[in-house]
Design a protein that fits this description.
The protein is an alpha/beta fold. The strands form 2 sheets. It has a 9-stranded mixed β-sheet with strand order 9-8-7-10-6-1-4-5-11, with helices on both faces. Helix 2 packs across helix 6 and helix 4 crosses helix 5. About 35% of the residues are buried. The structure holds adenosine monophosphate. The site of adenosine monophosphate (AMP) has 24 residues, from helix 1, strand 4, helix 4, strand 6 and helix 5.
């Protein structure tokens, strides 16, 4: 069997280290002038695909990003890490704001068919919308098995053995190929792109597409009514003795008097 063809979803999101600010109209968060990066779980997904290629399990790694023109930087990063080529599904500002996991899943499913992919790896969730839906929906649309929250992926013959992070432990499952994997935090530690590889990535192929090229209608199915900041924590009080603490708790009615 020749190597696997691997598609990886790479979403451009507000950098994890940025302090998020809600827009004054409470309809979203401020994105202008804010540092963006590849979704951290997608760096892990790309890393896993590249390791598959280095182990000669995969033959080609294709990075896909649906979003505004700046996603090309995200895709160049994926290619500098080691992806062979990239597909940018370009969205206008409005579409980029309202696109939902089902839309992305439809696009990924279509691209996977066109590219004759054997594996799709996406992050377990995008840190902006926290949806945790795209991988699962893509698997459902393609009728492929899914191995979500992966912390280890091993290929044996026509199967993948995947260890999954479940509540309080690990679950190991076997999935037949083709399959969808969603990457969890402990799957690997993504590499940094080196300067020579950043230079090489500039010459790798990056195809520009539209959602309509894949027959996907991006009309949203829900409407955001309001976005709120988390409640501000009230300042605490320092007390000298345990007796003071008990007195305060009594005052607040938190212990019987
Ligand atoms: P979500 O279901 O939105 O939490 O996203 C889960 C994963 O799907 C992300 O970590 C990405 O790998 C992939 N994904 C979601 N949205 C996009 C997008 N606009 N472009 C590329 N990949 C995406």
């Amino acid at each position: 069997m020749s190597g696997l063809r691997v598609i990886v979803g790479c979403k451009r999101v507000i950098d994890y280290a940025v302090k998020i600010r809600v827009k004054p109209d409470k309809m979203g968060v401020v994105t202008e002038g804010v540092k963006h990066s590849m979704n951290p779980f997608d760096e892990i997904a790309i890393e896993e695909a590249i390791r598959m290629k280095e182990k000669k399990i995969a033959s080609e790694v294709i990075a896909v990003s649906c979003g505004p023109p700046q996603c090309q930087e995200t895709l160049r990063t994926a290619m500098a890490m080691g992806a062979d080529k990239a597909i940018h599904v370009e969205l206008d500002a409005k579409q980029a704001e309202t696109i939902q996991p089902l839309h992305v899943a439809k696009i990924l499913a279509k691209i996977s068919q066109e590219e004759k992919a054997d594996v799709i790896i996406v992050g377990k969730q995008a840190i902006d919308g926290d949806c945790n839906q795209t991988g699962q929906m893509t698997a459902a649309l393609l009728d492929w098995p899914q191995a979500t929250f992966a912390s280890e992926v091993i290929k044996n013959n026509g199967d993948l053995t995947v260890t999954r992070e479940v509540d309080g432990g690990l679950e190991t499952i076997k999935v037949k190929l083709p399959a969808v994997i969603t990457a969890d935090l402990r799957l690997n530690e993504p590499r940094y792109a080196t300067l020579p590889n950043i230079m090489k990535a500039k010459k790798k192929p990056l195809a520009k597409k539209k959602a309509s090229d894949y027959g996907v209608d991006l009309t949203p199915t829900h409407q955001i009514l309001s976005v709120e900041d988390p409640p501000v924590r009230e300042a605490g009080q320092k007390l000298e003795t345990t007796e003071d603490l008990v007195a305060k708790l009594r005052e607040a009615g938190l212990v019987p008097s």
